[in-house]
Amino acid sequence: MPHHATPLHPPAVRKFLSRPRVVAACAAVAALVLLLSAAPAAEDPSRWHSYLVGPLPGGTREETVVAVVGSFAGAAAASPSAAGAPLSSLGESNLSGEIEPTPAPSMVLVPAPSPAENFDDGSMEEPERPEIKGNPPKDPAPLLQEPISTGLPTMSSDVNGEHDMDRKPVLPLRLEQAPLWSTAADKELIYAKKDITNAPLTLDDPDLYAPLFRNVSMFKRSYELMERLLKVFIYHDGAKPIFHSPELKGIYASEGWFMKLMEANQNFVVRDPNRAHLFYLPYSSRQLEHNLYVPGSNSIEPLSIFIKNYIDMISAKYPYWNRTKGADHFFVACHDWGPYTTKLHDELRKNTIKALCNADLSEGIFIRGKDVSLPETFLRAPRRPLRDIGGRPVAQRTILAFFAGQMHGRVRPVLLKCWGDKDADMRIYSRLPHRITRRRNYVQHMKSSKYCICPMGYEVNSPRIVEAIYYECVPVIIADNFVLPFDDALNWSAFSVVVPERDVPKLKEILLAIPKSQYITLQSNVKRVQKHFLWHPNPIKYDIFHMILHSVWFSRVNQMQID
């Protein structure tokens, strides 16, 4: 969790606004919601408008949390009960033209400025944060290389780049319940699934290097169909800064850049939800933490309540969530807490497509084959997202392995204990000493290293993986249970090394055992795959924006049932 400035509240106020009192206030708001829900539907909406407004600017963060957490609950209670109605029951006027939902009344929520997160050595870290999860499993499962079974043949390829086009489809990932009614968009998704399954063989595409993909032919056909068919509806409800307020700098930039580019897109976004294949929930997990988390409370319950109330509101206000129980909805979250804020809403947790940086199989929240592993990208200069991209040629990479960063999580202390200041080839630091940074800073170390060590931190994900790709250094990923980004499409064995956590003491031995010719191939492939992880102010084909959107699209296509 990013560093929080020292709260401005005096000790007496902090004591008064303790976690039990905040939770009690939330319960009181919920009781008020029940009273409002019993009121006649024809009552003046202004009766609940005041609960959306909350405290005036200048109120404490705890007061704002209580007011905002209750806001969507009031909206859901006052909404007309049309949630279960079929699409055709929205009214003749709705069907004759485009639909643009009315934004919810504004919520007074004044965000504090984002804290500075850069360290002197140029690295990006997650500062110390309270533990908000239960104990991790005693015996974590190893990182899995193959995706779970879906309705489409696996996008697999061997190290020689030859593709298994004849692999038989296996049982698809099944929804708990079929859609309440069918739409034209559903028929297009079924058509796409059949067409992808029978994709023509792709040979020598100059834009797609086959060994980087599990199955380049299926990826290309799926991508083409996405470009031609996909329509996304974005909910207008929700006020800034939690909604529609992208953060474009720092380690959570992935969710912000996707939000910015998605909302500005004119190729995929539609104003008429009846045409949509996917529905985007445009909230920021980073802004949730920044604005609703009460420092010192050690609880993310206010964040989870807020999201639950938001989903309850849109499911009561519109029929689209209820048609599929959220299966055609998606959100994008890069904050570590993104998965845990879904726990209070079963349909959100189980059915919705979750694009998460924290793609941890061991938590029981990320569902492989349905959810999307989101790359965590650290951007230092939002106006120049491609700054410093590139690295030294192989002959000038004189460092075998490099890592520098804080010692949090279960892997990094072991890494430092085994290799810190013990071997000249293994440049492993907790923080880069100033005597070293005077000659070569953090970025220059990555540009000069053969392998960049990417151990998990508090969670399995790390911005170093994409950083290594940016600086053309082969990433060495140490994080059991981690589903790698774009796992549905990319063949990570072609451009990275995955080391089980238990093998950290043998790390140098593992790296030295890789033949020079294989290292050269890995490093060359890192340079080739780089374009799929780059942000562009104006998105281009196959860049990271389109790769994220494709993974969401491919997940939704996979869910469709073909008789």
Automatic annotation (TrEMBL):
GO terms for cellular component: Golgi membrane. The keyword Ribosomal protein does not apply. It is found in: Golgi apparatus membrane. This is Exostosin GT47 domain-containing protein. Keywords: Glycosyltransferase, Golgi apparatus, Signal-anchor, Transferase, Transmembrane. GO terms for molecular function: glycosyltransferase activity. Residues 114-146 are annotated as: Disordered. InterPro entries: Exostosin, Exostosin_GT47. The keyword Glycosyltransferase applies. Residues 227-511 form the Exostosin GT47 domain. Pfam families: Exostosin_GT47 (PF03016). It is a single-pass type II membrane protein. Belongs to the glycosyltransferase 47 family. The lineage of its organism: Eukaryota, Viridiplantae, Streptophyta, Embryophyta, Tracheophyta. It comes from Panicum virgatum (Blackwell switchgrass).
